[in-house]
Design brief:
The protein is of the alpha+beta class. The chain is built from five helices and eight strands. Helix 1 packs antiparallel against helix 2. The radius of gyration is 20 Å and the shape is flat.
Length: 182
């Protein structure tokens, strides 16, 4: 059975950087299961979920990535992925899309993630953006978060607490049910 890993890569953005990294994965005989890439400031960030049938394939990839790091400004890391079968056996928890929109202020991500952590809510995906607002001088903050809420958290109480957080932060917060698959 193939072993699964997570590969992260961060470096200066330029044409061909994704091709260079994925070439090493391909030439090592490793399959990419899932990936996520985005540009943050002037750096590309790439996360890959890979599977390797043989330990020698992973050894080959690690050597190729070490060489690439020495020749470029790309920093990589390989971590073992959690056991997917164990997670499936634990069952899926209800998933929700949490969206925040409002004036950009310091601390929105911290306050929201702390609020969720205190209630045992797991963040599965998060995307934030700050956009210029043509109609006024302040920037607009947008946040999309896919969360998994423990079954013992009362939905009505959770929504009421979110409303209080919304007033405290002076931001619009919406919570909607999401599909089971992330």
């Amino acid at each position: 059975m193939p072993k699964e890993y997570i590969v992260s890569a961060v470096g200066g953005n330029r044409p061909g950087v994704v091709a260079e990294l994925t070439k090493h994965i391909y030439l090592s005989g490793i399959n990419i299961e899932n990936s996520c890439m985005t540009l943050l400031a002037e750096y590309f960030t790439l996360m890959l979920h890979i599977s390797a049938s043989e330990d020698s394939a992973l050894d080959s990839l690690q050597e190729k990535l070490r060489t690439m790091e020495e020749e470029t400004e790309i920093a990589t890391r390989i971590l073992p992925a959690p056991d997917q079968q164990q997670e499936a056996a634990e069952g899926e928890k209800p998933r929700y899309a949490l969206r925040i929109r409002g004036e950009d202020r310091s601390g929105i991500i911290y306050k929201t993630s702390q609020f969720l952590a205190q209630r045992g809510v797991n963040i599965l995906q998060m995307d934030t953006r700050v956009e210029e607002n043509a109609h006024c001088e302040s920037s607009i903050f947008r946040m999309y978060t896919l969360i998994e809420i423990p079954e013992d958290v009362d939905e009505e109480s959770f929504r009421n607490e979110l409303e209080s957080l919304s007033h405290e932060m002076q931001e619009s917060i919406t919570l909607t049910k999401a599909s089971s698959a992330a």
